[in-house]
Amino acid sequence: MSAVIENHHDDHGHHGPAKGLKRWFYTTNHKDIGTLYLWFSFAMFLIGGAMAMIIRAELFQPGMQIVEPEFYNQMITLHGLIMIFGGVMPAFVGLANWLVPMMIGAPDMALPRMNNLSFWILPFAFFVLLSSLFMEGGAPNFGWTFYAPLSTTYAPPSTTFFIFSVHIMGASSIMGSINVIVTIMNMRAPGMGLMKMPLFVWSWLITAYLLIAVMPVLAGAVTMMLMDIHFGTSFFDAAGGGDPVLFQHIFWFFGHPEVYIMILPAFGIVSHIIETFSRKQLFGYSSMVWAMLSIAILSFVVWAHHMFTVGMPLAAELFFMWSTMLIAVPTGVKVFNWIATMFKGSITFETPMLFACAFVVLFTLGGFSGLMLAITPADFQYHDTYFVVAHFHYVLVPGAIFSIMAAVYYWIPKWTGNMYDERLGRLHFWLSFIGVNVTFFPQHFIGLAGMPRRIPDYALQFADWNMVSTAGAFLFGFSQVFFLFIVIKTVMGGKKATGEVWEGARGLEWTVDSPAPYHTFGTPPKVS
Amino acid sequence: MTNVRSLICSFKTQFTVIFFALSNKAIAEWDELNMTQGATAISREVYDLHMLIFWICVAIGVLVFGVMFYSMYAFTKKKNPVAATFHENTKVELAWTIIPFLILIAMAVPASKTLQSIYNDEAGDVNIQVVGYQWKWQYRYLEDDVSFFSNLTTDLDEIYNKVPKGENYLQEVDEMVVIPAGKKVRFLITANDVIHSWWMPAFAIKQDAIPGFINTAWTIVDEPGLYRGKCTELCGKNHGFMPIVVKVVEQDEYDLWINDKKAAAIAMAELTEKDWSAAELVERGESLYVTNCVACHQVNGQGIAGIFPGLAGSDVVLNDKAGQIEILMEGIQGAAMNSFSYLSEVEMAAVITYTRQSWGNAEKGDGEIVVPKDIVEYKQNKI
Asked: Is residue B295 domain-shared with residue B264, that is, in the same domain?
């Protein structure tokens, strides 16, 4: 009898990943699934980036050189969709998978099989979306915001496949969110009250609720499109009694919370990194939590600031202007808290900290242009110009994407057991930092000077800065191939990391070995 | 000694001259990179608002980043090996919640006032309906029964880099919108197919043109001049190729222009309504045929074998009136035959009738003529 028990115990001790491809297809391990999400988002980031290179190459000079306007429109559409739904969102889900259980002292995610499913339907969704490039009539060409009736009555036949793939992405996000919420609510280590949770966990809890609230709205919007295209309804067709502006209201009711879905986890990441490398406890933990909650709640009442020019009544314009400006208050609180954490700290600038500092500065710049865009009368001049393009790329690239890169450098020693090459990491940072600013800063100017977004060719007065912007884009693009090299190099080997990894690191994930064992916290730790 | 002094003096003067020349140039170039001040009271108000918010942001940025960069410089591990331990301060936190809120109110007040003055949809002295099409604009002067399309005129060869680009590359149109200076002009903006957006930076007007809905915008432009704008809502393939050009003129010049337009519209209507005989149409059509068609179809209507089909004895020209109208209106995809839909109804009818009556075609085929009303009917059916 005792032998049997011993055997069983032995089995358990050796229980590790299955061998070969099966490991990745069948896995229910949160670390494996996190890895899958992260690699998938990296692949999508490179594909979406290649599309950005095509866009910037065409805009290098006035005139049509490389692609036709029709294909250009397909590129801007797919670039947006792939970067948002394939790049940024899965990267954050991957980080949540890796980190949330380890940060709260849980052995795994609460719903591991659903976790597997929510990942594995994603590659399928993007296969469908990308295959539309090879269909008759080409890929979707109506911008990532797919305004009706350009996306219904006047859309290419591949739109139906686009709708299908958006549905799958939505299902994946909803499953992922349910998993995060259930895990956080039920599996925290004893003693970890809500107000003791690490901020990354808090940021993901809020993000997950936002996702569950708005993904069904997006699904509704594309389903109404599907009905308009194939089943003779007129939701968005004025000729049949419908309303094209209704589409925009529904879309942005999803779209604005979506913007915060892509930045809240970044807030969490940056808080951890600044705390660690300042070797000082984060300033204003509870105000950080309240700020994120306020931003999330406000995100539901600001959507029509994307639509100031559709002809809304004065009262609506005023309401959406004021509510949008209000978001600056909690966002400001977060920035002030980060800086107060650094104030009188004991700071070193390893790669994650460099990215985090750049995040604070450049995200704040994006916040300033966002505040300017909130001013309705001025927005009449900014709306749908390159000023908007500059604004949202400033919050998404040196905002969301820099935070993801910072997270990779920060936690990769924990994931792989190897330190990355600090010299290469810093080089990657500086190349990205210069590249991103050379690309997007001039776009403020050409936007103010009057260049509309989403055009393949432009008047001559915009030529100089477009050329600069393209040069920056290629610098930024190639630096990310370099990033891929650094990540692979770290996975393959490198200086061995200790369990704690960073001198000032706080949090349960640093109490386990590096690399983190396949199963962690089989017995919950005590949190005082 | 004096020599040296005068040398320094002259150097100083030269330096000052160069410096001012440079900075003037820099300022001029900077202006081109900023929002336009525009040509109306509203556009200047919007510009001032833009600059106000901009400078407030700059001030906040200098302050916030100042503290941040100072911390990054002064509190490195080398200079400050042991970090402080404070991690909250209610007073400070309250201050940086309340002060930004007050700054926001200071921004919202002027912004709301400007917005209120923009919102005014009372009728103007001149009222123009603007209709967005894929990919051109139509303008209808509601009081005067004048209406026309405004198309991009930039040559394809310029777009495809075969010839040098002109000064107004992608910003030039065949017919400009003309409005009087100093008068209230109201635009009623809508669209025929997808959503477009009518943007004239100099007037600070950007209004979406939405099928089935009419949005309004208004302006009073002080100074005569040419003002250029663009479509700013993605509307399909040629979204980047539907510019807007508004010509603002003094009232008397405007009256002349609108009267000419009205007279031309009446003359065209009369010509279209008139009962045409075959001979009249043939006479009018001959010169049109010479300017538009002979390069390919030849004077004798024989075309060039193997390249350009002949019209003499062609089935379509002999017996298929409807088919011939369609080819001239739409062109033939994938062939050298372009659409000639820019011809007026009268011209179109005349040139078609000319081909149907010449080279013995009248005897060999059904001999039917095409009158302007047929073309009008075709256009109406199409819409």
From this structure: no
Number of compact structural domains in chain B: 3
If asked whether residues B184 and B100 sit together in one domain, one would say no
pLDDT digits (tens, 9 = 90+) for A153-175: 899 999 999 999 999 999 999 99
Round the average pLDDT of chain B to a whole number and report it.
89
Query: What confidence tens digit (pLDDT) does each residue in A89-140 have?
Result: 999 999 999 999 999 999 999 999 999 999 999 999 999 999 999 999 899 9
Among chain B residues, the shortest Cα distance to A77 is held by B234
Least confident of A6-20, B271-285, B305-319: A6-20
C-alpha A230/C-alpha A152 separation (Å) is 9
Q: Which of residues 372-411 of A touch B (CB under 8 A)?
A: 372, 375-378, 380-381, 383-385
Mutate to test the interface with B, among A346, A373, A451 (most CBs of B within 10 A): A346
Where in A79-151 does DSSP place strands (E)?
Answer: none
Q: Are residues B114 and B185 in the same domain?
A: no
pLDDT band with cut points at 50, 70 and 90 for residue B383:
low
Interface probe for A, chosen from B195, B197, B207 (most Cβ of A below 10 Å), is B195
Distance between CA atoms of residues A443 and A281, nearest Å: 38
Same domain for B166 and B214? yes
Domain-embedded: residue B11: no
Give the gap in angstroms from C-alpha B322 to the nearest C-alpha of chain A.
27
Distance (Å, whole) CA A87 – CA A259: 14
**What is the structure's pLDDT at A216?**
97
Q: How many CA atoms lie within 13 A of B252 on its CB side?
A: 0
Q: Give B-chain residues touching A329 at CB under 8 angstroms.
A: 97, 100-101, 104
For residue A368, what is the nearest residue in chain B, using CA coordinates?
B57
Architecture of domain A26-511: Up-down Bundle (1.20)
- Asked if residue B254 and residue B155 are part of one domain, the reply reads yes
Of the residues A30, A272, A306, A414, only one is catalytic, namely: A306
Mapped to the 3 state alphabet, what secondary structure does A375-423 carry?
A: CHHHHHHHCCEHHHHHHHHHHHHHHHHHHHHHHHHHHHHHHHCECCCHH
pLDDT digits 0-9 by tens, A60-93: 999 999 999 999 999 999 999 999 999 999 999 9
Indicate the pTM of the whole model: 0.87
| Residue B372: domain span | 275-382
List the catalytic residue out of A118, A132, A165, A331: A331
Among chain A residues, CA nearest to B197: A309
Query: Are B111 and B188 part of one and the same domain?
Result: no
A333 touches chain B (CB under 8 A): yes
